[in-house]
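We both want to read discrete structure tokens more fluently, so let's practise on a single case. Would you supply a protein for us yourself, any chain you care to pick? Would you write everything just below, so we can both look at the same thing?
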Amino acid sequence: MAFFPDIIQGQEFIPSALLSNNVRRIVNGLNGFHGNRFSATGAGTVRIQIYNALENSIGAGTAVNFSESGTFCDGAIPAIPLIDPARPWGVVTQKLEPAQMGDCFISGPVTVAVTGSGDFAQPTSENPGVFVRGSTGAPVLFASNGKGLLNLGAGREYDGPFAVRYDANTKKVIVSGGYCLVNLSGYQLPEMAIAVEVESSGFVVIESQYSSGAVSTPTLIFMQNRPVPEYKKCGIALGEITLINGNVSVKQLHYGDINAVIWGNCEDEEA
């Protein structure tokens, strides 16, 4: 910035566009630290300047990706409604008309619309204005009445043995591999996938049965009800799948490898 000396009372001066723009940028940089409904108190948030690179408006609280097909515009980068949650994304602070510039949260506490259940939440390409709760995405600090306070850029979802996630492209639930010990028989299971009916909610379960003096190789199944102890059968719920208005959320229920015993009554314990 240039240096601007104080103006003495009674002194004539010509308004400076440079000074005016500098002041505007400072004020705009501070804006949002008071009463912005998409930023909690605004403290601790990190934001960047973006502009709407599409011909349609982008609503406040919408998740956006950053388009590499555009160009810098006075330091702002092009943004489009989210098409891939695996790519870098942020949340716009106010409605943006086509080509309009504005702010985008990329880190810190942000309040957005949420649905489903789970400790994490992330947007979907089908509805980037609503975050789906599950086992992936940003940590959910608090949620009530369809609104959730997320901590963007903080923490990480569970990705250890038997981690459950949903692949929106294949419409399947993917379960990471892990070690499963059943009645002293050990199995190193690879990554598995199972199709989930779009009209159903339920549980992703590892199941093994005792027959002819031996336990069967644990297999992945989908059940509408959480498994209960059964004679000569053991089922361990790995995750809960919830479908609300076409949105799928995943809640991780099991952490770590599996150590299970099949008795007359099934008991399972997490390692």
Observations:
- The two ends are 60 Å apart (CA to CA).
- The chain has one helix and 21 strands.
